[in-house]
Amino acid sequence: MTLNHVTLETRREDVEAEVAFWALLGFEQVQPPPGLRDRAAWVARDGTQIHLVYEDDPVVMPRGHPAVVAADYDAAVGRLRDAGFDVRPTEEHWGAARAFVRTPAGHRVEVMSAPPPP
Q1: How many CA atoms lie within 13 Å of 67's alpha carbon, on the beta-carbon side?
Q2: Exposed, middle or buried, 87 (CB in 10 Å: 0-12/13-18/19+)?
Q3: Confidence class of residue 51 from pLDDT cuts 50, 70 and 90?
Q4: 54, 60 Cβ separation under 8 angstroms
Q5: Mean pLDDT, the chain, integer
Q6: Which one of 18, 64, 82, 92 has the largest count of C-beta atoms within 10 Å of its C-beta?
Q7: How much is the pLDDT for 2?
Q8: Helices in the chain by DSSP H: which ranges?
Q9: If you ran DSSP here, which 8-state letter would residue 25 be given?
């Protein structure tokens, strides 16, 4: 089994900035099924999707977060910083660099240079 998607609540007015954020990590906007297009925007990369569900008063978890592996970790961190995001490196695990960053809507995202070992 693989994880298919994570859902993040987002104000409609933040969606464009959220999509641009995820593009910096290699995600592309994809169309949700017709019945969901008025309720969400989706981005996808390598079979994993982030569903940005429209909410007027979204819940943003203070510590909970999705984590993504960026094969081009240094370049991805550089793109985020160049775009004005505050990327905060954190303790390495299993010898892999990691950092946390907040999306424009305030969601915490972990960017990892490699996945955990099996």
Answers
A1: 13
A2: middle
A3: very high
A4: no
A5: 95
A6: 18
A7: 77
A8: 15-23, 73-82
A9: T
Q: How far apart, in Å, are the Cα atoms of 15 and each of 1, 5, 29, 83?
A: 29, 17, 11, 16
Rama region for 104: left / alpha / beta (φ>0; ψ in -120 to 50; rest): alpha
Other CB atoms within a 10 A radius of the CB of residue 89 amount to 11
Give the number of C-alpha atoms closer than 13 A to the C-alpha of residue 73, restricted to the C-beta side: 15
Hey, what are 44's tokens?
Answer: 């996808």
Q: What is the dihedral of CA 101, 63, 60, 110, to 10 degrees?
A: 30
- Mode of pairing for the β-strands spanning 108-112 and 96-102: antiparallel
Residue 28: per-residue pLDDT = 97
CA dist 53 and 40 (Å) reads 4
**pTM for the structure as a whole:** 0.94
